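Anyone up for a design puzzle?
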């Protein structure tokens, strides 16, 4: 019952024509309710402020009346019984002037106290807003980090950045709501004081406030539409900026710098234009309210003067008090309407953030499961089939193969045949659609993913170095490695020689994605980054395909050194890389078509034989 009434009232103050911002509001509300103490103090300080404000006005009204007729005070005091009589006898000898001065001083004190309470209320609201903002930002960042690989790759990185930023803006809902609550409390207080003075005046004041609010409702719709444009443009700008700024080389060699700059600027200008229009619309509101109230006040004074005729001397003080109240009321009406506009502009953000932070439709990385103790015997693919959700059919069908501990298993196949996907399945980035992967007989689905990945070292085609020093890139995300660990990993990856020749050695900053290093150097650093962790299993996905023959020979040498101590799963285009593998798997049409050792396959007249001949002819 109260709920429905409350919702209706909120609906009237913040019209929402069907947009669903409930999820977003629930998120803000939940975050807010963690700070009940602050919320309670905000409400309390606001109410006390309103009481002081009401008292100020009431006292001023009495002071004004007392100037005209001293009896007002005495008859008023009689209403308070014992205390009233004591005060009355105390004030008996004070003249009209003294009474007026005393009351005005009292009003000033009440006003100072009101200001103090308002400050405390605002202080608490700011504290709350920043806490909630910090909390929302933290939880949105954490949430993205907890996404599964397939979930997080659905989102453009730049949009994710923009969305995290937006999360904090919706915390300003708290500020808006606080202002609304304060304004409403004040408006009610003024109306109460006014009603005590004269019912007619109170009704006319309500009339003025309603006219103002209705007038503004029309602008709200425009502001909401602009809010949508703005938020969408901000997210789009984020996506474009990150994408283009991350590809400086591509933009230059394709002569696309102007194109990229124009696209980013156009997207941003769209957001700015919407912001500007919205601000201009908002700017109309305040002066209109002022003009409206001054006209209303003038009409009241003139009308009051004409209606009361001779007794104007009694009415004028009342009207003056009314004007004071109206004067105090209008800023509150302004705040209320400004808040409505701010909220309306925020609606789309709240909606977007609500659906962004909604967990029910997101896929999170699996946590928990049994800790993987280390590989003892083998890894088995058993009837593994896999398809990407958006693809039409199976990419991999019914794969069966074993990787025995200490062996080197090579996977070959045409580009796009699903080799990298097999590596992703092995890493647990995706789960098989049917079938399963067994580690020493245990289904990977039942094992703790982080503990399994902790035993794996991976080098992909792209090295993904950070714009940090070589040292930091190798120890990446851990602090436990000593300089000696790092050096020996680099020796093993045959990266030590070139690093030592750099002027700053291990302290060389490699540039975005390692651009200050050659492709071969980047690959060897990536290998060192994998090896420093002393992995039991090494997965190399075309780690050598982009290399010069010297770098390839060096990595080849590393693999031979690791043979037997590390289980190696290597995907390679260049068949020379895999000549010494214990087992070669040939992937075609989503199936393992052939398997065996190099010598057998190369002379079998089968698929591998064909691939081998093609390469040897080319070479
Ligand atoms: P390979 O490493 O053998 O070149 P991949 O395993 O990378 O091949 O990709 C195999 C096929 O799966 C390709 O046709 C590719 O289009 C598709 N594919 C790869 N990754 C995804 C993905 N994240 N979502 C949808 N399809 C994908
Ligand atoms: Mg691949």
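Challenge accepted. My sequence:
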């Amino acid at each position: 019952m109260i709920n429905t009434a409350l919702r209706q009232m909120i609906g009237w103050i913040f019209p929402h024509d069907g947009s669903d911002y409930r999820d977003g509001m629930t998120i803000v509300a939940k975050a807010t309710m963690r700070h009940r103490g602050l919320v309670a103090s905000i409400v309390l300080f606001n109410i006390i402020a309103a009481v002081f404000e009401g008292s100020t006005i009431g006292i001023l009204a009495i002071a004004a009346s007392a100037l005209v007729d001293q009896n007002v005070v005495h008859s008023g005091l009689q209403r308070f019984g014992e205390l009233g009589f004591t005060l009355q006898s105390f004030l008996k000898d004070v003249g009209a002037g003294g009474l007026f001065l005393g009351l005005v001083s009292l009003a000033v004190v009440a006003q100072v106290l009101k200001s103090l309470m308002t400050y405390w209320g605002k202080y608490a609201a700011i504290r709350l807003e920043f806490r909630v903002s910090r909390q929302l930002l933290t939880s949105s960042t954490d949430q993205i980090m907890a996404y599964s690989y397939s979930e997080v790759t659905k989102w453009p990185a730049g949009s994710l950045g923009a969305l995290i930023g937006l999360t904090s803006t919706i915390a300003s809902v708290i500020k808006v709501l606080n202002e609304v609550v304060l304004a409403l409390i004040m408006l009610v207080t003024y109306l109460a004081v006014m009603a005590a003075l004269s019912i007619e005046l109170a009704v006319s004041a309500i009339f003025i406030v309603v006219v103002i609010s209705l007038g503004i409702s029309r602008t709200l719709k425009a502001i909401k539409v602009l809010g949508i444009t703005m938020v969408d443009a901000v997210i789009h700008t984020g996506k474009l900026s990150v994408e283009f700024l991350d590809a400086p080389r591509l933009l230059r060699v394709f002569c696309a710098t102007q194109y990229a700059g124009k696209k980013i600027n156009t997207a941003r200008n769209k957001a700015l234009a919407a912001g500007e229009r919205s601000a201009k619309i908002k700017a109309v509101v305040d002066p209109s309210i002022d003009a409206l109230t001054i006209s209303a006040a003038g009409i009241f004074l003139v009308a009051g003067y004409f209606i009361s005729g001779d007794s104007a001397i009694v009415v004028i003080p009342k009207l003056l008090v009314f004007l004071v109240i109206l004067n105090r009321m209008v800023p509150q009406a302004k705040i209320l309407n400004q808040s409505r506009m701010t909220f309306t502009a925020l609606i789309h953000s709240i909606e977007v953030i609500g659906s962004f932070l909604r967990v029910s439709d997101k896929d999170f990385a699996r946590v928990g499961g049994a800790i993987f103790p280390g590989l003892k015997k083998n890894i088995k693919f058993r009837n593994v089939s896999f398809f990407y959700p958006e693809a039409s059919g199976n990419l991999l069908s019914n794969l069966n193969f074993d990787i025995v501990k200490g062996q080197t298993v090579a996977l070959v196949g045409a580009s796009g045949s699903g080799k990298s996907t097999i590596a992703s399945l092995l890493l647990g980035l995706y789960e098989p659609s049917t079938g399963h992967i067994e580690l020493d007989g245990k289904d990977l689905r039942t094992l703790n993913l982080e503990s399994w990945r902790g035993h794996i070292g991976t080098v992909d085609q792209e090295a993904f170095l950070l714009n940090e020093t070589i040292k930091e890139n190798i120890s990446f995300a851990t602090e436990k490695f000593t300089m000696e660990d790092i050096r020996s990993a680099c020796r093993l990856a045959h990266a030590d020689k070139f690093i030592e020749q750099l002027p700053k050695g291990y302290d060389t900053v490699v540039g975005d994605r390692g651009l200050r290093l050659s492709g071969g150097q980047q690959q060897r650093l990536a290998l060192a980054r994998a090896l420093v962790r002393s992995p039991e299993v090494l997965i190399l996905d075309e780690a050598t395909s982009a290399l010069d023959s010297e770098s390839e020979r060096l990595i080849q040498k590393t693999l031979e050194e690791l043979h037997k101590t590390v289980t190696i799963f290597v995907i390679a285009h260049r068949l020379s890389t895999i000549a010494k593998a214990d087992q070669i798997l040939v992937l075609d049409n989503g199936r393992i078509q052939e398997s065996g050792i190099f010598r057998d396959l190369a002379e079998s007249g089968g698929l591998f034989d064909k691939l081998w001949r093609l390469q040897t002819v080319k070479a």
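A detail worth pointing out: Residues 478 and 547 are 28 Å apart (CA to CA).
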